[in-house]
Design a protein that fits this description.
- This protein is mainly beta.
- The protein has one domain.
- Helices cover about 5% and strands about 45% of the residues.
- The protein contains one helix and twelve strands, in the order βββββββββββαβ.
- The strands form three sheets. A seven-stranded mixed barrel has the order 1-7-5-11-10-9-12. A two-stranded antiparallel sheet has the order 3-6.
- β9 (about 90-95) and β10 (about 100-105) form a beta hairpin.
- The protein is globular.
- The N and C termini lie far apart (about 30 Å).
- The model has no long low-confidence stretch (mean pLDDT about 90).
């Protein structure tokens, strides 16, 4: 079976409209790594279910793309999903009422335990440095163009 994303069958974003995904921060992380070697999977979306827990990782690297690698990261935290849905590349991530980044891709290093959700951020700083707190509301929201 052919992957429609890898084969270039989609010429644009197929996600016309979608619901926000909601959750709350259950872990605040600290720390940064260089040469992490996260492998961004080819699909530009991932479904997340209620009660799943996934990791948020920040990077300031330019040109993060499906099939690529991300080395320079900062750890933000873990989010528990309270309203599931589909997260796509380009979605804004709001935590504690502020936009903390935009979805850049997904890494499956720790699957099936949890998905690494990679955010492109203007600055590579950790959740602790951002002042994120346990229980902060997290929203993944489609940016309309």
């Amino acid at each position: 079976m052919k992957d429609p994303y890898l084969s270039g069958m989609f010429t644009g974003n197929p996600y016309f409209d979608k619901s926000d995904i909601l959750g709350s921060l259950v872990v605040v992380l600290q720390g940064r790594l260089e040469k992490r070697g996260l492998q961004i999977i080819s699909p530009p979306s991932r479904c997340v279910k209620k009660y799943e827990v996934h990791e948020l990782i920040a990077s300031d690297e330019e040109n993060i793309k499906p099939g690529g690698t991300v080395d320079n990261v900062a750890y933000l935290g873990f989010v528990e999903i309270s309203q599931g849905g589909v997260i796509t590349i380009g979605d804004e991530v709001i935590c504690g009422g502020k936009i903390i980044g935009v979805i850049a891709g997904f890494d499956e290093t720790h699957m099936p335990n949890h998905q690494n959700i990679i955010l492109h951020c203007g600055e590579r700083i950790s959740g602790a440095e951002l002042g994120l707190c346990l229980g902060d509301a997290v929203t993944f929201r489609q940016v309309k163009k």
